[in-house]
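Quick start: what a row looks like.
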Amino acid sequence: MANILLLSSEFPPGPGGIGNHAYCLALNLQSNRRYSVKVITRVRTSADHAFDDKLSYEIDRINSSNKLYGLFIGLLKIFLALTDKKHSLIICSGSWALILIGLIKPIFPSIKLINMAHGC
């Protein structure tokens, strides 16, 4: 089984195309028994955790009311996720995720990485 770490700037139940894309990607990957998915994203609404409890994969949310603190905690959670489990792939979606992986990739140079940029 391949362990996939999905980093996303947005995630439902809040609105947004990045979040919807990340949700559908995680849902479809998790439905395939060959993959195990963990999502690291930011807290956006008070309904986030109730939404997360209904999903079949792990969601780890970061309270990012303070941007610098949110960045630090995001780096820490990614580092812990990568050292705790052997993730074979990291998928990044959105600017927050791309910034974080840019800071942590030098520590884990052998990990496979897919970056997605969204915009017009």
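That is the whole record. Residues 67-84 form the longest helix (18 residues). The helical segments are 17-31, 48-52, 67-84, 95-104.
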